[in-house]
Amino acid sequence: MDIIARRPGPSVQEVFDADPIPPPAVLRSESPATGQSLEDVSAERYFSPEWHAREVEKVWRKTWQFACRAEHIPNVGDQCTYEIVDDSVLLVRTAPDTVKAYINSCLHRGTMLRTEAGNAGQIRCPFHGWIWNLDGTLKVIPGQWDFPQVDKGKFCLPEVQVGLWGGFVFVNFDPDCEPFESYLENLPEHFAAFDLENRYVAAHVARIMPCNWKLGMEAFVEAYHVPIAHPQVTAYYGDSNTQYDVWPGVRHVSRMLSVQGVASPSRPATTPAQTIEEMRRDVPFFAGKPIEVGEGETARGKLAQRAREKIGRSAGADMSNLSDSEALDLIEYLLFPNMVPWGGQALPIVYRFRPNGNDPDSHIMEIMFLFAKAADGTHPEPAKMRLLEPGQDWKDAPELGSAAMVADQDTDNLMRIQKGLKTSRKPGVTLARYQESRIRHFHETLDAYLGR
Fold first, then answer.
1. Whole-angstrom distance, CA of residue 311 vs CA of residue 322
2. Residue of 173, 156, 181, 183 lying closest to 89 (CA atoms)
3. Can you tell me the mean pLDDT for 413-423?
4. How much of the chain is helix, strand and coil, in % rounded to 5?
């Protein structure tokens, strides 16, 4: 890998304390899969049916994907589904510490075994009543006398690979896939302090977006567009000061650290009082008694102090030693191909981007909030995914708070990009060397998979 952005620091805090490091080196000039210059990422990958078909075979059926959270299937017999394009997986808690995933199709005539989550002591086809045990072995064939060709001992449900990390359940359709532990690369080490296993899905909203899944994801892994697309946040979001990290030899993971509590370089005259006032206006988390900035204090420091107090009360723990960055900043990772988890303690968010069936011009975007469980490990029922209706905006999901306005602004632009790429006479998109280095890194990894 020829991309070098920052350094592979073992922890978020160490990176925060480090001296500035020069911008990344130049990306290799050609994609290993296509031989095309990566100065321009090809436009066709965002709308070509042929490109989509290659992604199905080489990416969606070959990579590890976040399918559900462990709290969605906490008890033996709990079952839920995950769908990606034409494939469907049935995830089943078969034992207190075991999750299995089966191809969600009856071996009799192909009926989907489940379409909704639930709990059962077995897996039963709703069409003809064939039954499998939770471990995937065939239990009952109605009218078995009429199926002399079926050996019950061999008619087990086909399994897909399962991986567990941080309370997330992953699946991989490829029986010869890379081991889950090596696929995650440096992600577990970087998230070690964030205790994602002790969180639950408090909100989960999805929307059909008017663009390819890659365009949707790319809008959320760079801050270059913020001053123009989201001007309301510039008093408290240091967009151009964002740090982007892509590490040598790390294929599936990238990161950005976006500072909050300071004004954007595009608003140099912003006062500390304006920074606090506008952040409190947009982020209910900072509501409550007024925040005053005294002599020798900064808006960022005072906002971080308020964040530590609120996080501590919510978690029922002492958060006084939490760094300003872990309490306040946007610490966002990308796990190839489509999972975007946030670190930090304030509001861990997870984005997921999936193709909308076989339509390369649209995709399903999901926003999840992960809140801390109570000290005794209990938590409310995890939120079910709420799919917004056609014509609804993200703002119609009040549980998303201020994140809805940002997502709606991006949605309008993404529709323009999808259409603009088709009308453009330029063969590709031109990416910044540093501020869009995570997008460059993503496409190099994508091309490597497509070239296999």
1. 10
2. 173
3. 96
4. 30, 25, 45
Rounded CA separation 246/255 (Å) = 7
Per-residue pLDDT reduced to its tens digit, 134-192: 999 999 999 999 999 999 999 999 999 999 999 999 999 999 999 999 999 999 999 99
Q: pTM of this prediction?
A: 0.90
Type of residue at 322 = L
Instruction: Burial-class residue 279 by CB neighbours within 10 Å (0-12, 13-18, 19+).
Output: buried
Which residues are bridge partners to 131 per DSSP?
Answer: 124, 140
Q: Using CA atoms, how far apart are residues 289 and 302, in angstroms rounded to an integer?
A: 12
Instruction: Say if residue 57 is exposed, middle or buried (CB neighbours under 10 Å; 0-12, 13-18, 19+).
Output: exposed
- Bridge-based pairing of strands 386-387 and 199-209 is parallel
Please tell me the distance from the alpha carbon of residue 64 to that of residue 281, in angstroms, as a whole number.
39
CA nearest 215: which of 38, 418, 41? 418
229: which residues sit within 8 A by CB, 6+ positions away?
409, 410, 413
Neighbour count for residue 422 (Cβ, 10 Å): 12
Paired tokens of 19: 């001296």
DSSP, collapsed to helix, strand or coil, labels residue 205 as: strand
Angle between the N-to-C axes of helices 272-282 and 299-315, in degrees from 0 to 180, rounded to the nearest 10: 30
Q: Which residue from 166, 206, 179, 163 is spatially nearest to 342, judged by alpha carbons? A: 166
Nearest in space to 197 (alpha carbons), one of 240, 164, 225: 164
**What are the tens digits of pLDDT across the range 85-108?**
999 999 999 999 999 999 999 999
The predicted-structure confidence for 280-304, as pLDDT tens digits, reads as follows: 998 888 888 899 999 999 999 999 9
How large a percentage of the chain has pLDDT more than 70?
91
Alpha helices in 129-253 (DSSP H): 180-184, 187-190, 213-218, 226-229
CA–CA–CA angle 215, 220, 224 (5° rounding): 95
